[in-house]
Write a structure and sequence with these properties.
This protein is an alpha/beta fold. It contains 9 helices and 5 strands, in the order E-H-H-H-H-H-H-E-E-H-E-H-E-H. Helix content is about 45%, strand content about 10%.
Length: about 210
């Protein structure tokens, strides 16, 4: 088996704890019916468009907060930060990424941005990786092929040399079409085990 030389990781939901439980916790705190965020923000065509603009950097987080708050009936102040207040570092994946780098694997981050003001998803995290591509910095977003090519260029690797990990399943097929091996991040231990098989290096703590 030919092992992959590069690892490209999504950020939110991969190097952090999952997004969905955090959103459910916000709904509970705000007294909203369960599923409000999904139906009002992430399945609504207008809010999908606004979220894509946010990811490309053509809409500010404050503007997104205002539009989203109107739909769900809450105050707009730092709404994104309030929705994801329960996110925490996914220590096992962060540790695995560090282990991969020590073993000679080139590691990059490829993240669809949600803006950085007033709430910064990346604050407090060490982003010292071989490549960091944040969508708003380039006017592109996953699953557009060009943003995958940007991270490959930064890593100086080809897609067929790399593994791509994301918690959003719809981004995996476009990456696979380019030649990436892909891993759907559902549960950290399983993700790490799949990466060990693809990279050929031990990544789990204690291995």
């Amino acid at each position: 088996m030919t092992y992959r030389k590069g690892l490209v990781l999504d950020f939110g939901g991969v190097l952090t704890t999952p997004l969905f439980p955090a959103a459910l916790a916000f709904e509970k705190r705000a007294g909203l019916p369960e599923g409000t965020l999904l139906t009002s923000l992430y399945l609504d065509p207008e809010m999908i468009r606004r979220t894509e603009e946010l990811e490309r950097g053509t809409l500010t987080q404050t503007q997104w907060n205002t539009a989203a708050a109107e739909r769900i009936g809450v105050a707009p102040d730092n709404l994104m930060g309030r929705i994801f207040a329960d996110l925490r570092p996914e220590v096992s994946l962060i540790t695995a990424a560090a282990a991969a780098r020590r073993a000679g694997v080139r590691v990059g981050i490829l993240s669809n941005s949600v803006g950085t003001r007033p709430w910064n998803l990346y604050a407090g995290y060490d982003l010292d990786y071989d490549a960091v591509v944040i969508s708003e910095d380039h006017g592109l977003r996953k699953p557009e092929p060009e943003i995958f090519r940007l991270v490959l260029k930064s890593l100086d690797l080809t897609a067929d040399q790399c593994v791509f990990v994301d918690d959003t399943e719809q981004y995996l097929a476009p990456a696979a079409e380019l030649g990436f091996a892909t891993v759907h991040a559902k549960e950290p231990a399983r993700t790490i085990a799949e990466l060990e098989n693809l990279l050929g290096v031990p990544l789990a703590t204690g291995t």
